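Can't paste images in this forum, so I'm doing it all in text. The chain is below; anyone willing to post the predicted structure tokens underneath?
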Amino acid sequence: MIFETARLIARRFGPRDLATFVAMRDDPEVSRYQSWDRYTEDDGRSFIAELATAQPGDPGWFQIALEEKSSGAFVGDCGLFIDAADRRLGRIGYTIARTHWNRGLATEAVAALTAFAFDRFDMHRITASVDPRNAASCRVLEKAGFVKEAHFRGSEWFKGAWADDAVYARLRDR
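Text version of the structure:
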């Protein structure tokens, strides 16, 4: 276990997660504001294999599986990126399976991941980049204590069109 909340266990990915992870990422509603369109079993197998040797706190992305305590079900994932040039700076990302939307699980995971990063890795600043059309994700960040710092218009080439990007941040001491 990496960390836990009242309703979630955050843990390493394993082979048991493959089918539900791929199904979540291949759901068009889930991937609507994500960088991928389709997600195959081979994609999932490669993803899980790459994480086998990764360690939380290493520079780069580390993805964490989210399991519901009450049922043991895979509900999504979250990730922490630690900047190699300055390990006090990081980014987060998160994805929740559609069957688990609107239950506060994303907010719970983001708040816990942020606390984990600040406590365990002595980070100063954590950011999140979100498509501002994804109002639910913006609310998750705000509820987890992030502040919107920027709105870049037409700054990302995203799925064949220019899209806006909003940047949220949370500081260790504020």
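Strands lie at 3-4, 8-11, 60-68, 74-82, 89-96, 125-130, 147-158, 161-171. The mean pLDDT is 96.
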